[in-house]
Amino acid sequence: MNIFRLLRRFVPPYRKEVLLNVFFNLLSTVLSLFSFAAIIPVLRILFGISDANLQYADWQQAAGMEETLAALKNNVFYLIQEQMQQSGSGWVLFLLGLFLVVMTFLKCLTAWLASFFMIPIRTGVLRDLRHQLYEKVVSLPVGFFTEERKGDIMSRMTNDVSEVENSIMASLDMLLKDPIMILVYLLTLFALSWQLTLFVLVLLPLGGWVIGRIGKSLKRRSTQGQELTGSLLTQIEETLGGLRVVKAFNAERKLVERFDRLNNSTRATFNRIHRRYTLAHPMSEFLGTVLIALLLWYGGGLILSNHSSIDAAGFIYYLVIFYSIINPAKDLTKATYGIRKGMASLERIDRILTAANDIQEPAVPEHIELKDAAPLIAYRNVSFAYRPDMPVLRDINLEIEAGQTVAFVGQSGSGKTTLVDLLPRFYDVTGGSITIGGTDVRDVRTRDLRALMGNVNQEAILFNDTFYNNITFGVESATQEEVERAARIANAHDFIMATPDGYQTTVGDRGSRLSGGQRQRISIARAILKNPPVLILDEATSALDTESEKLVQEALERLMHNRTTLVVAHRLSTVRNADLICVVHEGGIVERGTHEELLAKGGYYTRLVEMQQA
Questions:
Q1: Total structural domains in the chain?
Q2: Mind listing the pLDDT tens digit for each residue in 485-526?
Q3: 3-class secondary structure, 502
Q4: Considering the domain boundaries, does residue 506 fall inside one?
Q5: Which of 119, 183, 358, 503 is 20 to 30 A from 324, alpha carbon to alpha carbon?
Q6: pTM
């Protein structure tokens, strides 16, 4: 664990706050030393210890730092002695108590200011991490999410980020405060008695070794726990998405038993994590008490044998400062445990942040010009495979003229959807090339390429927002009139206006308040408003009833007018009027032509038609 690498990664945007935090932490620590120093004269007064022969020393004439400090210390005791002789011990105790109150107030004020400037760091770092993670997720290609479990990604974006907040970011405060306190206190202890301090430093590594042994496996356990949490979320998401099937097959008990096994395994793992984590505080407290006991034995022996550089009152002050080290040391130990725990979550987050994007943007992007003279879209010897051993498309050659409607038909799994997904670069070809307007799609920015296209898929993807915002999704500065016009063309205006708030009515999660046909018509209205020159329809009517299909088909025909359209269809009745029908079989185009031409051949297409009519 490299804590400096962690700080370099997250803290640079907040340098000002870090410097202010460190400054006030340092000031708070120094002020605490002054407040503790009041103990020495108080003890001297209470135990009747007096230095009758003290004389005022000219500290400006002292040679070196050690003599200067000794002179200043002498003068403080001289002034206290003079005040006691003039006003009595009771008045001096009152002044010392007042001094202690003032110093403590200033110490608490500066400690609060240190925390005040830490808060923007903690909240800002977490905001930045969430932003980076979300931005990365939306920028990754579609193929990344076919290999990853959705629940595990959700776990990384929620539970792992929370774990980072609760452990690493919460520990930043301790890491910027406690080392300062420990360093200042140690320097003070050396100034008071280097013999005692060396004795303590000999024993400290032993305590550090014990604590390190306890926390060694914490990071590995935390990784396992977060992975199990991701599996839990995956099962929950699958259950909610497939609840109809679960109930239809009476599989409730089976799923509950599977969930319980995973849930119990998660609980057992987190039991081990939290038990080990909570051991940090009592273990460090016990070791601190052992050190205090040894220090009392060793330091007391030096004083009783007159071999110590400090007297009894100074030794009590020494012990107070040393005991003040124990709390920041315990907090530092807890912070170290927290970082080990949080680093496991951060590594899981980094798997997303460092994931390679296979869809590379061109270094020098070209501009697409849609020329009527050349084929608008051309597939040249296109091949594609999700994995090297599983080819999906082989040597596809196809030219699509501007304004043409080209339909792709064939059995499920033949590669139809993959064929059209290559055009907007949801995936990149593994062989050959695809051009649009004469330009290879890989030489164009994906943003510019996809701006030319509109998509209407089998599953209408709507967001939990208003009709208006769903229709204008991805379109800047659309007017109400333009939205209503798009909705009318899509046969959606009437049912929208029948809702309580019209276009400002919320459609529900994934459009749950709408029927399948209504959802599809909203997605068509969205494509109409975008007004793209190229349209991709992927099974846009296959999941609809007859009445809804009729309304959606009418909307699609209006949408397809004067556009280049690529249609993926199972229902052959919806593509009879296509300018070109391509039959895709086992990754290749085996037949192409109009509906009548393909029927005359009596090949694959004819068999598909006969199967649907049977």
A1: 2
A2: 888 888 888 889 999 899 999 888 778 788 888 888 888 888
A3: helix
A4: yes
A5: 119
A6: 0.69
